[in-house]
Amino acid sequence: MWPLIFRDRYEEGYGVSYKGIDFAEDNGFSLIIALDCGIKAIEKVAYAKEKGIDFIICDHHRPDAILPMATAVLDPKREDCNYPYKELCGCGVGFKLVQALGTKRGEGINDLVLYLDLVATAIGADIVPITGENRILAYYGLQVINQNPRAGFKAIIQQLKKSTLTITDVVFIIAPRINAAGRMEHGQHAVNLLTETDISKATKFALEIEKFNSERKGLDQEITQEAILQIQRNREEDRFTSVVFQEDWHKGVIGIVASRLTETYYRPTLVFTKSGDKLAASARSVKGFDVYNALESCSECIEQFGGHKYAAGLTLLEEQYEAFKEQFEKVVKDTIDPTLLTPEIQVDTLIELKDITPKLMRILKQFAPFSPGNMAPVFMAENLVDTGYVRTVGQDGTHLKVSVTQEDSYKIEGIGFGLGDKISKVTSRKPFNAVFSIDENEWQGTISLQLKIRDIQ
Ligand SMILES: [Mn+2]
Fold first, then answer.
1. What is the pTM of this model?
2. Rounded distance from Cα 60 to ligand 1 centre (Å)
3. CA 66 to each of CA 76, 423, 425: distance values in angstroms, whole numbers, following the listed order
4. Which protein residues have their CB within 5 A of the ion that is ligand 1?
5. For residue 456, how far is its CA from the centre of ligand 1 (angstroms)?
6. 415 Cα: distance to centroid of ligand 1 (angstroms)
7. What number of other Cβ atoms are within 10 A of residue 114's Cβ?
8. CA of 270 to the centre of ligand 1 (A)
9. CATH number of this structure's domain 9-214, picked from the four choices 3.40.50.1820, 3.90.1640.30, 3.30.70.2860, 3.30.70.3290
10. Ligand 1 center–CA 179 separation, angstroms
11. Consecutive sets of 10 residues in the chain, 457 residues long: mean pLDDT of each?
12. Where in the chain is the domain with CATH 3.90.1640.30?
């Protein structure tokens, strides 16, 4: 049995750490397998090598020109990598290593299916496109989650009112709970949950993690509020970027806060907090703008950075913060196509409500799993009228619940997340147009179709 050690992102920071390498040395390990990190850990891998510890790196982040001197560096984003599919997530690369080992031992793909629940969760959580091989891994991984989940997943799922999970459920229900442990306390809690085979123990771990998840949610709302206030106070609502910093913000949630700010202001965003004697940030971008490249153009103010086109992380010295903030604003202002700063919904086709049938839903489901790279089809219907049941739901009336009809012929319910403020457009009794995807809603064991409304005009 190999020890499974989850890095601690507070004490050790993100990615490969000296502390982890020292731990390996003290405990007599000769090999470290790094997953979803390590592609830039040149000095750390060299440090390990001096101590006689080998590294295998399984990563999908963009490499620099020089690679670490590891025993193997698996990364489909390597320019000299001829692996045909480039969009594997970090866990997917690890899975390919497991598969290669299995093949060598004479195992077939059926011996590996039991790991696909983890791979599917990582594909959803890491927000990689669900195309090509990712789509296949996610499809079969969802089957494992739904039909034969490991005890840890079963423990989470049995608290839900849903019988079948989609990849969206995995992203919004399972992934945040697993991440919450590492964000709030220590990732080891998540490892315990995922490796436990006894369901009663797993249920206990799941409850613990549920607690971390609610703490995480509270913290993420609080910090988002503080960040928005900071932007308002500094009168920075009209800039091309959101860059905010407060030294006591919890490092585990700055990535989520950056995503929330991107939803609010829809522009490239960085959220900084203090980390040791430096500042650390999470970066998020808008569709079509490469934030990694933008950071590269600010590299004289940055200590270290890494990541992808839409999400990245960095550290810098506190005295560089203001200079960085201005440089980043300038780079984005000079290079971004301003049309990218308005969110756009691409409508696939017009539809009439009477054509939204269980048969259509069965066909749509064959296109799943949906995620970036393979989004659920978006429809538009015109001249809808509310049947009189429109109301806002959720905390502070954030969401909109409607029941609509078209030419009095067919009635269907719809939910618009975050669209509560559009209620007046529906109650005015004037016909309106809506853009939506079609979803199944499960309520007390009955499944019905509903519109998942994205916008109303
Ligand atoms: Mn990743």
1. 0.80
2. 6
3. 15, 55, 56
4. 36, 90, 126
5. 34
6. 31
7. 11
8. 18
9. 3.90.1640.30
10. 13
11. 50 74 95 94 96 96 94 96 96 97 94 95 90 96 95 90 85 88 85 95 94 90 96 96 96 91 94 94 94 96 90 94 98 96 92 94 91 89 91 89 88 92 84 94 86 93
12. 9-214
Q: How far is the CA of 293 from the centre of ligand 1 (A)?
A: 17
Fold of 235-341: Diaminopimelate Epimerase; Chain A, domain 1 (3.10.310)
CA-to-CA distance for 310 and 329, rounded, in angstroms? 17
CA of 43 to the centre of ligand 1 (A): 21
CATH entry, 349-456, from 2.40.50.140, 3.30.200.20, 2.130.10.120, 3.40.50.2300:
2.40.50.140
Cα 385 to ligand 1 centre (Å): 44
d(CA 194, CA 151) in angstroms, rounded, equals 7
Give the Å distance between the CA of 74 and the centre of ligand 1. 13
Q: 171 CA to middle of ligand 1, Å?
A: 14
